[in-house]
Automatic annotation (TrEMBL):
UniProt-recorded name of the protein: Aminopeptidase
Classification of source organism: Bacteria, Pseudomonadati, Pseudomonadota, Betaproteobacteria, Burkholderiales
Species the sequence originates in: Cupriavidus oxalaticus
InterPro entries referenced in this protein's UniProt entry, alphabetically: Aminopept
A Pfam family it matches: Aminopep
Keyword field contains Hydrolase: yes
Amino acid sequence: MNTRHAPRPGRRRGAAILAAAVMTALALLTAGCETVSYYAQSIGGHLGVMAQAQPLNDAIAGARDANDARLAQRLALAGRIRDYASRELKLPDNGSYRRYANLHRPYVVWSVFATPELSMELSKWCFPIVGCISYRGYYAQADAEQYAQGLRRDGLEAYVAGIPAYSTLGYFDDPLLNTFVYLPEGELARLIFHELAHQVVYVRNDTAFNESFATAVEAAGVERWLAEDASEDARASYRQYDARRQQFRALLLGTRDRLAALYQTPLDDEAKREGKAKIFADMREQYGRLKVEWGNYSGYDRWFDQPLTNAHLAAVATYQQWVPAFTALLVQCDGDWRRFYAEAGRIGALPATEREATLRRLAPPATRVDTLTASGTGAGTH
């Protein structure tokens, strides 16, 4: 079972800091200057986030003292969601999301995704502990943009995405952040469940597996939270938001599939470029029709206002590829979260080709998360 049994918080923090120091020393001995610089900003950036975190009760008291009722309310809500995650979804019962930090910026990190001009294959970068992943994260937007510019000079297409939260896989007690604490209730629950899921099952060198697993956990978990603990207004708001998001994702994934099919044809590169431009234009037209259907809701305008590339679409696909398979697996486990995590861990431990074949067998032609009846039977924690 590929689950993470978290050590005591103090030991986890000490071990993580020691591991970070060791990785830095190894990098200095074996890597070039650019790699050393990357590790330094990663370690320094994360330790900076942790240094600003304070216990949730202290943060709530501070918000009330400052007459910031909105922040106090959001932190209290996050605390209830965090308790629910361990109690009902059997996610790790540790110090993660029981502290709060205000970073005074809109995102905690900015991730860089890259693909060739005529391919949907994401570039990968390999690191200690997490293995090879299909993005590269920076704590400063300027650093991410600078790196992306270098990739573009090398002929790749690059996309820089602001990320509100990330998981340290249980090595640190990840804090609540200002970058996501003000999200609508359903979205806040979704994010907390997603990041905690990464602490349960994580497979080195398989971003699609890890993100799809966490996305399936978040989707099923938020359905339960909304049904059992949220207000009717919160439920209605999330249903509308999620319906739009599903349509948006379907548009992007459909476009991604059209592009992937185009790139596999025997056409010459110039013809592929022309086809690519038409497909992107079609996507923008379809989005315009969706906006009319949504009553001119503009929530995704910012995404469409930027120059779009293969990397934008490949990044979305990474998070969704195996969600139907994991959703089906949860149904097969009768909604028992522990059985589900154990089975996901077993699949994750398989060789890569066997793992993918197993997920393909699990995935039905269509799966709806709202058909799940996850009971989360059993007591205790992982």
